[in-house]
Amino acid sequence: MDVKSILKKNNFTFEKKYGQNFLTDFDLLGRVVEKSGVNKDSTVIEIGVGAGTLTSEIAKRVKKVYGFEIDTKLKPILNETLSEFDNVEIVFQDIMKISMKEIEDKIGGKYTLIANLPYYITTPIIMRFIEEATNCEAIVVTIQKEVALRLCAEPKTSDYGSITASINAVGNAEMIEYIGREKFYPVPNVDSAVAKITIDKNKYEIKDMNAFKKVVKTAFGMRRKTLVNNLIKEYKITREEAENALTNLNIPITARGEELSAYDFIKLSEII
Question: Bridge-partner residues for 140, per DSSP?
């Protein structure tokens, strides 16, 4: 499949507002799908179908693919690139404007989310499916390398942040592939990587998810300040109360947010 020729034949113009950069290396795409863990019994949601290159590699290996694409100018291109597959359904809508219930009712069971995401929508997409979805088993995303490093970071590292802790509370993130910028068409200004998040809502017992989210947000709200100072400011508690909360969890009173694991945040949210 010569994707570039198909795009040119259809006079396709790339939309900068959608962050469109298509992968055209089919060996690479096949490897990503293999590493995603899907199989012939799997159902996949793909967000940002583009020219259908990743879609075709997924469709070869799974039972059903539901692709969501915002750019309707891609219709004739996808009609051509996906013509051989009868297990692909393309929905030309912005998935962020569809309720999660409607999405999951359409799918009707467990699924894996696979996507090549532009930077501006990365965090909203990931967090929406982590927080709202009930049937999503894993999220496999091709994203800017620096963002992927944040998703998979360990505590006490500069890449560790609020999204890392939020993901670690309900799943496990790992890097499964690095992708140089030259693999994309058109070529972007940054390198990419593929991160896989395996979701496990029973990983920890979280008694109050909103309390957990608030304490994580507080911890990283002013990253350079100590956790004690951030807790005092947000929760209007005394220094002694804030320090006691950390001491009860064997956390140093000089700690900053990036030093706490997801489990630490869960226990801290219960105390606070």
Answer: 114, 196
Mean pLDDT of 118-122: 82
Residue 196 CB burial class (10 angstroms; 0-12, 13-18, ≥19): buried
Domain boundary among 181, 199, 217: 199
Does residue 218 share a domain with residue 105? no
The residue out of 199, 225, 246 marking a domain boundary is 199
pTM: 0.92
Residues 68 and 166 grouped into a single domain: yes
- Which pLDDT score is estimated for 149? 95
Mean pLDDT over 136-143 rounds to 96
Q: Decide if 70 contacts 93 (C-beta within 8 A).
A: yes
Report the share of the chain in percent with pLDDT over 90: 85
Parallel/antiparallel/unpaired status of strands 136-144 and 111-116: parallel
DSSP, res 50: T
Which region holds residue 108: left if phi is over 0, alpha if psi is between -120 and 50, else beta? left
Predicted pLDDT at 7? 84
Give the residue from 226, 230, 234 showing the smallest Cα distance to 255: 226
- pLDDT grade for 120, boundaries at 50, 70 and 90: confident
Tokens of 45: 């949601």
Residues 148 and 215 in one domain: no
Task: Identify the H or E element spanning 144.
Answer: strand 136-144
- Residue found by looking up tokens 């999503």 in the block: 136
CA distance 89 to 58: 12
Q: Is residue 204 part of a domain?
A: no
pLDDT of 14 reads 79
